[in-house]
Amino acid sequence: MQNFFYSIPTKVEFGKGAVKKLPEFVKEFGTRVLIVYGGGSIKRTGLYDTVIKLLDDNGIYHAELSGVEPNPRVTTANKGAKICKEEGIEVVLPIGGGSTIDCAKAIAAGAFYDGDIWDMVKDNSLMTKALPLITILTLAATGSEMDVFSVISNMETNEKMGLDGYVLYPKYSILDPEYTYSVPKYQTASGTADIMNHIMEVYFNGVEGTYMQDRIMEGLLKTCVHYGPIACETPKDYDARANLMWTASWAINGFISCGKAGPWPCHAMEHQLSAYYDVTHGHGLAILTPVWMEYTLNEKTVDMFVNYGQGVFGLSPELEKYEAARQAIQKTREVFEAMGLTMTLRSIGIEDKSKFEVMAEQAVAAGTESCFVPLHKEDVIEIFNRCF
Ligand code: NZQ
Ligand code: ZN
Fold first, then answer.
1. What SS3 state is found at 240?
2. Which of 30, 163, 257, 371 is deepest in the core (most CB within 10 A)?
């Protein structure tokens, strides 16, 4: 197990009615709020009205930035940072999924930066501080509500990159599983695939001596395998939504990677799919994951796949190790398919292979060569080809 520093400073208010605590949390930092949200979902569900009333009743000023895109654009984040500066904003309040929260994080940091936020995304050391963030999550997926990452897209340059720093941990996150009842099946499935891949990126990174973390990760993965399909079929199943929501946060809040840190190959590859084709992140991962597993299955990795198969899918210890590994990979694919996700790049609108080379170069630049099974440019191209 590696040495590590452990601190997860985000305070979480979890459960039905949790939003009532919002004014109290805001007032710890000020009385001027920027609400950040995406399309129409929070208005359709009534959450928007609830929040506005809570803020108004408590004398909290609020400005707004709406229209944050899935795969949030740096241009939108720049608009938000401008509002923060002009309006003397003290707290940034994203209401939505990972895209909204990520955009809000970039805004919170951008409020202290004179220039284009893209400079900071390209060079994270330019980020010195950020406004306090309080998040209200509506989609269990990215874990942005409890982590340090903000993933921002620049559609002009076809780049999707992370802004990453301790100052981006939200101060509070309000997690009410009922706010995820309205998440469509497709986003529920994609979100679950994203959660699973966050865990797998750590589980399969080859760092040894992490028995405790590995067993916790198997528990988190089992939770997704069990509840993902249930939430897809029964969107108002509270336990399914609650378990997925809390798993999403724990998949990436830094706990499981304590002592087991390493690069994330599937994310490095998927971010290129989103950057060039604006695809749904979790669906891109669901397509890549089983293919990447098959591609990296070898003598060095086979025991990890056996443990995974036994711990997550209850495979028999009697199975020959490669047979167990292959069954584990097939079961992974079946979980995604059971939630209705298609398994080819063509099915998500990638109609030719013309960008694979440049996408592979960018995936390599994002770190695939330093993974446990190093992926060079030609390996990434081959994985894209097999996914096609
Ligand atoms: O725009 P709105 O109206 O909010 O609708 C959204 C959007 O269309 C909808 N939605 C969200 N909550 C809903 C709802 N619809 C109905 N009812 C609700 N309660 O779902 C759609 C997708 O939302 P989005 O926020 O884009 O999804 P997600 O949470 O999966 O976020 C994806 C983004 O996060 C990045 C991804 O790359 C992608 O840009 N990631 C962020 C990470 C992080 N911060 O740690 C890590 C991840 O690996 C990932 O890269
Ligand atoms: Zn992800």
1. helix
2. 163
pTM of the model: 0.98
Tokens for 250? 């724990």
Question: Whose C-alpha lies nearest to ligand 1, atom 4?
Answer: 38
Q: Which atom of ligand 1 is nearest to the CA of 102?
A: 44
> What span, in angstroms and rounded, lies between the C-alpha atoms of 25 and 19?
10
Give the whole-angstrom CA distance, residue 271 versus residue 159: 8
What radius of gyration do the chain's Cα atoms show? 20
Per-residue burial over 195-226, b if 16 or more Cβ lie within 10 Å, else e, is bbbbbbbbbbbebeebeebbebbbebbebbbe
Q: Which domains does the chain carry? A: 11-179 (3.40.50.1970), 183-387 (1.20.1090.10)
From the CB of 192, is ligand 1 less than 6 Å away? Answer: no
The answer to whether residues 17 and 169 touch, using CB atoms and an 8 Å cutoff, is: no
Residue whose CA lies nearest to ligand 1 atom number 49:
142
CA 42 to ligand 2 centroid distance, Å: 22
Sheet holding 172-175, edge to edge: 11-14, 172-175, 134-137, 91-96, 32-37, 61-65
Report which bound ligand comes closest to the CA of 102.
1
Residues 302-359 pLDDT 10s:
999 999 999 999 999 999 999 999 999 999 999 999 999 999 999 999 999 999 999 9
Residue 235: CB within 6 Å of ligand 1? no
Tally of CB atoms within 10 A around 319: 16
Mean pLDDT of 107-135: 97
154 three-class SS = strand
For ligand 1, atom 13, which residue shows the shortest CA distance? 183
What mean pLDDT is predicted for residues 89-97? 98
The residue written with tokens 């805001």 in the block is 26
Sign of CA dihedral 375, 377, 382, 384: positive
